[in-house]
Each structure stands twice: as structure tokens, then as C-alpha cells.
Design goal:
- The protein has about 325 residues and is of the alpha/beta class.
- It has a 6-stranded parallel beta sheet, sandwiched between helices. Strands 11-8-13 form a 3-stranded mixed beta sheet. A two-stranded parallel ribbon has the order 6-9.
Length: about 325
């Protein structure tokens, strides 16, 4: 990308999209195009085609998505599948139809099988069944990355995809029911501290192992890949490090300053037992993360405290 290339960031108000915009600005890219949902409904194919035919972006970062945690994914299956598939297909198809030089599709590590080999390499995609609690979202994301691959193979496009591990950081979603585990813990322990609660109950038994990547590190990789990678296979984005949910919970409690007891409700689902990405491909390309987990959680908690509207989502 040239510094004055026209770059469209879809989903610029979300955690990932806003981080990509910050990273592009940091690196001196000056011609960034964005649209809010009210300005452009990505599920509306006619509106998307009109936008691309009018704006003609050269590069596209597709970070827009309907996202949520275990509750949202397991109770709104149809909504997650329909909305994500529609917006992905509309944007990717329009990018091809109107001659974009390159598109980067943002997926999720939930695309990999529930019992995938650990760490999970890119090649394990579609080798066995998915985790049922987020199957609808995973199927939609698989469809998006496969459509990029098929356009490359049939029409010679240069569309790539990146699969992030669990993300966190500025502009995250802290909704009590629709957020992911790390922001949910930040909110829960913060409210428990403010209310003077003596104990907090968390879901499951704390045994699942998870990997977390600070969202600004992901954004740096996204720009790096747009400039340095072409290929049909996706690229994993992570740290290559994991910890148990129980250990994560204690770190968040310590950073927030909550001193009470932490209990576990084992009647609640754990989710996938282990999710660690094989990040050797990104490393071989010359990229690695820079933000360690405790430092990133402190930054995320500062963002939560300084932006009270985050908790209203």
C-alpha cells in the first residue's frame, strides 16, 4: 500500500476495526475511508455495491462482524450465521467486482475443530467437527475465508485472511451477557470491587486453556500482512502462549484490585478445552507480538475506566 492509497476499513467502530485505523494512521496512511452502520448497512447488497462503485477503494480490511460470547453465540445461532455470512459475501464480492487491489478478511480461531491438534496450525481447518457453542459463527467465518480463496483461484484476486486468537483491548465490548471472557471479567471484578462484594462466581471450573492477543498487536499484523503476504491459506494471529481461565481470572482480579473470593459454577459450560494457535507462519514472515498479557490488561482496564459508555454495551 502507498501512503495515499484509498483504504476502506469495514467495521471501524469495533475493537478490531478501530485498532486497524489507529495503526494505519500511526504508520502515515492518509486516505482512509469509513462508514458507520447507519451510513452503510453491509447486509444490504445493493447499498454495498453502490458504495464500492462510487468510492472504488484500492484496499479493504474486512473487520466488520456480529460478535459475542458463549451466551450470544449459543442463543442467536441463526442471527450470527445469517448476518455474518451476508455482510462478508457482500463486501468480498463487491471488492472483487469493483477491482480492489487487495482485501484482508478478519476471521476467528473458532473456525478450527473443537479437538484440533495443539497448537492449531492453519492446515487443520475442516479436519473434524466444530465446537457446538459457536458453530454458527465459525461456519460463517469459514465461508468468508473460503470465498476469498475461491476468488483467488478462479479470478486471480489477491484476497487474504487472518485468524486471530482471543482479542482484548481498547474499544472492547463489556456487556454483561454478550461480551467475551476477558472484558466480562474486567467488568465483573470492577463492579464487585465498587459494590464491596465478598465473592464473585465465574462460569465453569477454570480449567480451559486460552491464548489472548492485544488488539493493537493484531492491527500491526494486519497492516504487515497487507503489505507482505499473499496466499490462499489463512495466517494465524496470536502470541503462542496460553494460560488457564482460572489463572486469567486471578490476574484480572489483581489488576482491577478485587480482594474477595473467586468461586466457580461447574454447572456452566467451559467451552473448548484448549485453544492455542500455531503462530510459526506469522513468525516466519517476520512478525511477532509485543504486548504481554498483564500489560495489555492494564491498558484495557484503563480504557474501561476512562470510557464509561463501554459498560453500557
Amino acid at each position: 500500500m502507498n501512503k495515499d492509497s484509498k483504504i476502506y476499513v469495514a467495521g471501524h467502530r469495533g475493537m478490531v476495526g478501530s485498532a486497524i485505523v489507529r495503526e494505519l494512521c500511526r504508520q502515515g496512511y492518509s486516505n482512509i475511508v469509513t462508514r458507520t452502520h447507519s451510513e452503510l448497512d453491509l447486509i444490504n447488497q445493493q447499498a454495498v455495491n453502490h458504495f464500492f462503485s462510487t468510492e472504488r477503494p484500492e484496499y479493504v480490511f474486512l473487520a466488520a462482524a456480529k460478535v459475542g460470547g458463549i451466551i450470544a453465540n449459543s442463543t442467536a445461532l441463526a442471527d450470527f450465521m445469517y448476518e455474518n455470512m451476508m455482510l462478508e459475501m457482500n463486501v468480498i464480492n463487491a471488492a472483487w467486482r469493483y477491482g480492489c487491489k487487495k482485501l484482508e478478511f478478519l476471521g476467528s480461531s473458532c473456525i478450527y475443530p473443537r479437538m484440533a491438534p495443539q497448537p492449531m496450525p492453519e492446515c487443520c481447518l475442516l479436519t473434524s467437527e466444530l465446537e457446538k457453542t459457536n458453530e454458527a459463527y465459525a461456519l460463517a467465518k469459514i465461508s468468508g475465508l473460503k470465498y476469498c480463496e475461491f476468488l483467488n483461484r478462479q479470478y486471480g484476486t489477491d484476497f487474504i485472511s487472518v485468524m486471530p486468537t482471543n482479542l482484548y483491548g481498547p474499544n472492547d465490548n463489556y456487556h454483561p451477557e454478550h461480551s467475551h471472557v476477558l472484558p466480562a471479567l474486567i467488568r465483573r471484578f470492577h463492579e464487585a470491587k465498587v459494590q464491596g462484594l465478598t465473592e464473585v462466581t465465574c462460569w465453569g471450573d477454570g480449567s480451559p486453556l486460552r491464548e489472548f492477543l492485544y488488539v493493537d498487536d493484531l492491527a500491526n499484523l494486519c497492516v504487515f500482512l497487507m503489505n507482505n503476504y499473499s496466499g490462499n491459506e489463512t495466517v494465524n494471529a496470536g502470541t503462542g502462549k496460553e494460560l488457564s481461565i482460572k489463572d486469567l481470572t486471578q490476574i484480572v482480579a489483581d489488576i482491577v484490585g478485587y480482594k474477595g473470593r473467586i468461586l466457580w459454577d461447574t454447572s456452566r459450560p467451559n467451552g473448548t478445552p484448549r485453544k492455542l494457535l500455531d503462530v510459526s507462519k506469522a513468525k516466519a514472515l517476520g512478525w511477532t507480538y509485543t504486548t504481554e498479557l498483564p500489560d495489555g490488561i492494564r491498558l484495557a482496564y484503563d480504557d474501561f475506566l476512562n470510557n464509561p459508555m463501554r459498560a453500557e454495551r
